[in-house]
Amino acid sequence: MDTAFAYQQLVMLMHQHNISVHEAARRFAKGMGVQLEELQPAIAFFEQKAAQAAILNDPPGVGVGGVIAEAKVAPWYAGPQDGDPGWTKVRARLVATGMGSVIDEIDDASTKVVAQLANPALEGLSKKGLVIGYVQSGKTANYTSVIAKASDAGYRLVIVLSGTFENLREQTQTRLEQDLVDHTWSTLTKPDSDFLGHVQGAALLGHGVRTLMVVKKNASRLRRLRRWLADIPEDIRRRTPILLLDDEADQATPNSPTRANQITAINGCIRDIWKEIPSGTYVGYTATPFANVFMDPSDDDEMYPADFILSLPRPAAYFGAERLFGRESLGADDEPDDGLDMVRMVTDDEANQLRAPSKLADRLDFDPESPDSLVDALRWFVLATAVRRARGQANKHSSMLIHTTQYIDPHFAMQGRVEVLLGRWASNIESLRPEFEQAWVEEATRASDVASVPLPSWEDVWREVPATVSAVRVIVDNGRSQDRLDYNRKAADGSPIAETVVAIGGGTLSRGLTLEGLVVSYFSRSSNSYDTLLQMGRWFGFRVGYEDLPRIWMTAGLREDFRFLAQVEQEIRNDITHMEVENVTPRQLGLRVRAHPGRLEIVARNRMRFVQQVRVSYSAQRHQTIWLTEKDGDVVEQNLEAARSLVAASLATGDASRVGRRQRWALPAVSSATVAEFVRSYSFHENQRRMNAAQMSKWIDSFAQDCLWNVVVVGSGKQVVRNGSPHDLGTTDLGLEIAIPNNNRAPLKEPAGPNANIKALLSHEDWFADLDPALVAVETSDPASIRRKLAPQTGLVLLLPISAASVPQGKAIKLDSRREMDAVSGLVGVGIIFPEVGDAGVAGDGDFFAVVPDWEPEALDEEDDEIVLDELSEEIAE
User: Fold this and answer.
1) Terminal Cα-to-Cα distance of the chain (whole angstroms)
2) From CA 583, how far away is CA 54, in angstroms rounded?
3) What is the DSSP letter of 318?
4) For residues 853 and 584, is the Cβ–Cβ distance under 8 A?
5) Domains plus CATH for the chain?
6) E strands, 648-724, in order
7) What angle do CA 525, 315, 540 make, to 5 degrees?
8) What dihedral do alpha carbons 609, 610, 615, 618 form, nearest 10°?
9) Which of 79, 225, 281, 774 shows a CA-CA span of 20 to 30 A to 111?
């Protein structure tokens, strides 16, 4: 029998009757009059595709823990099939709304999530998991696709918990009705009506109708939902797979008690709802998972994501923290990237001027003058919107965010100030042309590298400015305002209105709610926690057709905070990847989160009751000196001597060899004792807490004492230009046969001070500086995997002499983001790639926190396990 035909028929039967692949094969064989053996290739093909779709394989030890544990990790979903009604509609809707270019990404990512849900064909099976996206990255499209595919695969009731704000619930309900719901669905909530519980659940679920509800995380509504579920007979609930999808899962869901043994209201309600779901999956969605991964992993009633954590891929067109605030160099000849030139400064004095008093009586009359930076931001908003109109985007929404305080009263005062300013501009627009033209000259081309549409001429832009100013609406969106943000308004003739809006607000604008066409953000409110700060970043997202126009006004301190959080985000995702590679679930190992060295807290303290400080391994870690001392001659000389001593000790055991035609020299097979001595003698800058000489050398002595290291001296062969003429960077004598041509590393202008922040020392290719380029070229995996394969248990030390005459080059000149080096003499930068060893994660810098699950695999006798499996097989066969 044709395998492809048999495979399609099996999948169709599975979806139609909510049965396993083996039961589908039995029925198909009986109906077609064929032998079951003839279907084995189709069954094997399904299981292969399902295994590919699953992100986690069987974790060690889980398989022997009984049939439930085995069923949780058994692959069951192979992806959508032609004709699946839910996914067919969602896919068409995504294409129609301009997301066709990313449809394959959404398809793949949502399939991997569905593959982790509890198999709907197995009654009594339940799982809890977490999906981590990026702020404003389109996770709604992902979970809409997940709902569609899950319903096609057999899930019959979908409950979406949509955050704590009613406007967000309305937005989610509307979006799901537009993208997902058709005549085959029953909806128990509406955009203007939360869950009331009037429909008889037993009758609805008893007939297998696909049912959707979107419920706000409000205690009374959640209790009503729990009672509605509890009134449905358990046998109906048991054979009705339920998907409990928690949007903004870090908000209100984690327990946040003020005293021991207390359960907060929303957390308790969600726990109670979950107890009424014998078959199905709880899956939380969030871009800020800190509170979720810090829940008590040993409490089975808690909503800790014990079974899986998935990280959604970052879409190519997404503007996130890393892209906006910087990245490492991508190649040997690539200047370190300081991020897109979209951030403008709000001075500390201006931020203080806009900071509302904490006392209510003082806030009532709080109405400060608009600082210059706010006027600049409003002016650019008008210009950016005019550019979009000149580009033919007049039918698109254009928004500006002003977020200076969480307090409500000052929002209305700010609204008045902005309306007065815009009114003055509208009345005198021609006389203001020089001011607007000057702003255009200063801003228009500063992010042109990422533009997908050409920039119009100044005359074309100015032609649109008067109408743009007149079109601006100033809206306050908070808990008291009556005129809220609404991107679905219609004109008298029923045609959609393209909003040009300045949105002023606090909490309701800082989480979940999407500001359509956001081009300018003015943000001076600080926060003390990671999750709150990241969620406030409404400027993250997609800006198709106006990629070059967004601007963000914020303080220098906030900019540095977001740069730090970009690192935290990536580290969490790296840990998730490592868990997948090592076949470990969150039930076994908690995710670690880096602690901020200053004022920022990861989450509120009452959400950290179950975390421990964990010491983190240096194994396979990559570190580089990005902070260097310029003015202290003793430190500069100390580091130069440390580098010379390392080279001399390395030459004592072998010769140096030139690496190809490049300015690199390799000294192989250096002992760990030699490297540890170098680490102790080099003075690492105090700002780089991860490069602590005592901790690094102790780790080498304790866990890598038998490893060998390669030392590579990296010079520069690149021509540098200053003021249009060739610029001599000089050389450094490190004790090799020739002096090493110095590298150019111009420091950042900010933060100013006596030290040099060069942002990045190493390029992407430096991962492989000691490896054969021909072998590296054929590898396609990540750098750590390549080193693991080509240089197992081998460390690498890179020495980079840096010119005291370093000057800005290329993009840094255009952005005016770097300055000339002002060092007393040449510096030496250091990169270290530690060997990968089995150190059990007990050494490192210690600035991480995580829960430590008290998990042990269950140990059933083999005979008992077989009996349970046989009983389950008989139950399915019936």
Assistant:
1) 26
2) 12
3) E
4) no
5) 77-311 (3.40.50.300), 341-360+371-562 (no CATH), 622-833 (no CATH)
6) 657-658, 664-671, 708-714, 720-722
7) 10
8) -110
9) 225
